[in-house]
Each structure stands twice: as structure tokens, then as C-alpha cells.
Design a protein that fits this description.
Elements: H1 5-17, H2 19-30, H3 40-52, E1 56-61, H4 64-67, E2 85-91, E3 101-106, E4 126-128, E5 131-133, H5 137-156, E6 159-161, E7 165-170, H6 178-185, E8 192-195, E9 203-207, E10 209-218, H7 235-255, E11 272-279, E12 289-298, H8 304-320, H9 323-327, E13 331-333, E14 338-339, E15 342-343, H10 349-362, E16 368-370, H11 377-383, E17 388-390, E18 395-396, E19 404-406, H12 407-425, E20 427-429
Parallel strand pairs: 3-7, 3-8, 8-17, 9-16
Antiparallel strand pairs: 1-2, 2-7, 4-5, 5-19, 6-20, 9-15, 10-12, 10-13, 10-14, 11-12, 18-19
Helix pairs in contact: 1-5, 1-12, 2-5, 5-12, 7-8, 10-12
The structure holds zinc ion.
Zinc ion binds next to helix 5.
């Protein structure tokens, strides 16, 4: 069934009339504190919402042993997966005529930074001035909800997708990607994937890779008053000594973009972030332990094993410059993200379909963006040979204080999703 003008108008009208319910649903999602280790209740909520819509529902806990040997796996150390559930809802058409689709969104969110500095509490969503505020309101509960409500709108207009659609509500996107990897392992595959991350109504052409690094430094604890005699070694000070050596990689790796076909046009794709530094247990004691955790962007196309060797060499250089560290080098652990970059090759049919939908809603050609961030889109593209597009609403202050999603952009993007799904999957009567 072709998407004629009447069908298109009915679907768009259904998106608009469902938008209030969409916002209420999004707010309910934001009310769940689904930070890492606390995701299960939120996924129960998602499974219920999918069942109410009549989808087949697959709800399972991720087992590290099932995925640890797969490409794209990120190691987890001292992390309990007791709460790490995925939910996949499946729509089956009466007759498979169109192209199948995966809509993949993560429900895990990063911690609120400093909850006291939010205008209103991070897990109490607030709508004001055309925005919804809340942790995850942008990144990316509103995106996953938009995918669901786009399909609701198609149904409300009297149709349904004429191809299989899997809606994947995953965890672990903010730390490993192992949630989406578990969906691959479970056998989910489609002709294309849409990842409704809130990077704006533009096709993401490329995303960087990403690595997490953990250094455990052992000091030599002595009374702090003895330290001026060079007795003991302060683990926190040793960490501070090492840090600039690692930070220098940012500049060096950004310089390599000159040889990259896509990233040469990005002003500063690689970011090296000192994310956590901890240690010490008493102000008047020399810290016996310090832990430094770093997020390192990696240029697309880089070999991660070679990158890890570079990091180890850099830490060794820092240690060689310090007699204590030379004798007591830190323990280096790579856990969390070990993500390769991904490029959506231009010219795919799925990009063309999203481009048509975008143009119908926005009245202009869709642009492409090059990102210094990472999404789960890489899994489909790199490990399933499935083109996956990232296209979404506009989020302000993701991972920051007073994160929000722009509601105008959310409505327009939901319209575009509905037209895109109708085009990509085709339609049949509901
Ligand atoms: Zn996200």
C-alpha cells in the first residue's frame, strides 16, 4: 500500500493528536531513576507499555557469558548485571511486504551530576517554555518514546507497518553498549536500524570510538607530617602526576584527523576526559590508594588494541619520570567502553527514506553531522552489516544539570519518524 497523500495526512494528524499522551508517557519514563544498576523497574514499565500495545515482548536479563566473545563487547569489572534487563517489542505484519526495521533506544541514564543544583529534581520532569526538563528527558527517553508513538500514530490512522519492526529498549548504552550487543546475540536483525538519539534532526554521518581507562595507584601511607622528608608516597599526588601525560593524547589524536576522510572537517573530534578521581581516607594520612578513570575518544578506523598499547606506553612514560612510580607502576584496567567508531556510508536506502520524511516535515533537505560522541548505532553497522541512522530531537545539556528536550523538535521528529516508518516498512490496513 503506497503512502498516498490522504494516508500521509491521517498519520501526521494522528502524531499531533497523540503528542500530549506521548509527553505524559515520556514524563513517566523520566520519573524512573534508571541509572546503572537501577534499570529493572523501568524495563518492567516498558514491557507493560509494549504489552498494552499488543506487541510480542521479549524481556531478559543480560548474561555476560553470552556476549563476552562477540566483537564489540566491552568488559565489565565489579559491575553487577542483576538489574540489567533488555526489552524488545516486536510488531509482525499480516504479510511481510516492506523492509524490516529496528528502533533502538537506551533507557539507562547517567547520574544527575549534582541533584541539588537542578532547578527542579532530575527525576521529576517539568515542562516549561517549550521544553521538558529531567535526566533522560533528552538522552534519550523522549527519543525511544517518539519511536513508539510514531507507530501508535500509524495505527491510529488505520494502518500498521507492512514489515517486522523490533523496538529495542536497552540498557548499558552509557557505559558499554552491552545491552544492544545482547540484542544482536539474541538474533535480532533487520533491513535497517533507527537510533533516535537526540543529536538533532540531522543524519549522523559518523561517530567516534570510545574507551574507558582505569588506573589504580598504590601509595605508601605514612603520617602526613613525615612526607616532607620524602617518606611515603601520596597516591593522589601520583595520579595527578600521571594525568597530563594521558591528557596530551587528546591533542596528538586530534592531529591525526588530518588524514581522516570525514573527521578532517571536524574541529575537535577527540576528547579525553578525567571523569573520576578518588582516593584517600583521612585528611592527615597519606593516601594509600587512588583510582583515576578516564574517557578517551578514539578516531573512527583506529585499531583499539593499538590504542590501548599507546595508552600503556604513555603511562609508562609518566612512571619513568617518577622514581616511586617507576618502582610501583599503577594497575591498568580497560573496562567499560571499548567502542569502535562508525561511519554511515552515504547513499543507503534508509538514509534516503529518512531524508524524504525529513523534507516532508521540515520543508528542506536533511543535513548530515559528524559527531564526537558514540551511540549504539555502531553495533548494527559494524557487526550486522545493517545501515543504521541516528536522527532525533534537540536535547540541551545532555549529561549536564537541567538537561532538557525541545518539544517543538520532538513533535517534528516524531512526525518524521512516522512518515519514515510508513515509507520504509510500507503500510497495510490495521
Ligand atoms: Zn544517548
Amino acid at each position: 500500500m503506497a503512502l498516498d497523500e490522504t494516508a500521509r495526512q491521517r498519520i501526521l494528524a494522528a502524531v499531533d493528536s497523540g503528542f500530549e499522551a506521548q509527553l505524559a508517557f515520556t514524563a513517566d519514563m523520566v520519573r524512573h531513576d534508571s541509572t546503572r544498576g537501577n534499570e529493572a523497574a523501568m524495563q518492567d514499565f516498558m514491557a507493560r507499555a509494549f504489552r498494552e500495545r499488543g506487541f510480542e515482548v521479549d524481556h531478559w536479563r543480560i548474561e555476560v557469558d553470552d556476549i563476552r566473545d562477540l566483537p564489540g563487547f566491552s568488559p565489565v569489572v565489579d559491575v553487577d548485571y542483576a538489574q540489567a534487563f533488555n526489552v524488545v517489542a516486536t510488531h509482525r505484519p499480516k504479510a511481510e511486504k516492506g523492509r524490516s526495521l529496528i528502533v533502538n533506544g537506551h533507557i539507562d541514564v547517567v547520574p544527575p551530576c549534582d541533584a541539588a543544583r537542578w532547578t527542579t529534581p532530575p527525576f521529576e520532569p517539568r515542562i516549561e517554555g517549550g521544553r521538558m526538563y529531567g535526566r533522560g528527558a533528552g538522552d534519550m527517553k523522549s527519543g525511544l518514546a517518539a519511536g513508539i508513538f510514531a507507530i501508535d500514530a500509524i495505527r491510529a490512522a488505520g494502518f500498521q507497518p507492512a514489515a517486522t519492526v523490533h523496538i529495542q529498549s536497552v540498557v548499558e548504552e552509557e557505559c558499554t553498549g552491552n545491552g544492544t550487543l545482547a540484542c544482536l546475540q539474541r538474533g535480532y536483525k533487520a533491513d535497517g536500524a533507527l537510533v533516535p538519539e537526540p543529536f538533532g534532526a540531522s543524519i549522523m554521518r559518523a561517530e567516534v570510538g570510545l574507551m574507558w581507562l582505569c588506573l589504580d595507584i598504590e601509595g605508601d601511607p605514612q603520617h602526613a607530617s613525615a612526607a616532607f622528608n620524602n617518606v611515603g608516597a601520596n597516591a593522589l599526588e601520583k595520579a595527578i602526576h600521571i594525568w597530563p601525560y594521558i591528557k596530551r593524547l587528546e591533542e596528538e589524536w586530534n592531529a591525526r584527523k588530518a588524514g581522516h576522510p570525514i573527521y578532517k572537517d571536524h574541529p575537535h573530534p577527540i576528547r579525553v576526559n578525567l571523569g573520576k578521581l578518588s582516593g584517600g581516607d583521612w585528611v592527615s594520612s597519606v593516601p594509600a590508594k587512588a583510582r583515576m578513570e578516564v574517557r578517551l575518544g578514539v578516531l573512527e578506523g583506529e585499531d583499539l588494541a593499538a590504542i590501548r598499547d599507546e595508552i600503556r606506553a604513555r603511562v609508562a612514560e609518566a612512571c619513568a619520570a617518577d622514581p616511586y612510580l617507576a618502582a610501583h607502576p599503577p594497575k591498568i584496567t580497560f573496562h567499560g567502553f571499548q567502542a569502535e567508531g562508525y561511519v554511515l556510508q552515504p547513499g543507503s536506502e534508509i538514509e534516503a527514506a529518512m531524508g524524504r520524511a525529513h523534507e516532508e516535515v521540515f520543508g528542506e533537505k536533511v543535513t548530515a553531522t559528524i559527531s564526537s560522541a558514540v551511540t549504539d548505532a555502531r553495533f548494527f553497522g559494524l557487526y550486522q552489516d545493517t545501515p543504521s541512522i541516528v536522527y532525533g530531537a534537540t536535547c540541551g545539556l545532555p549529561h549536564g544539570i537541567d538537561e532538557y528536550v525541545e518539544l517543538d523538535s520532538l513533535l517534528n521528529v516524531t512526525r518524521a519518524y512516522a512518515l519514515f516508518i510508513a515509507d520504509w516498512c510500507g503500510l497495510e490496513p490495521a
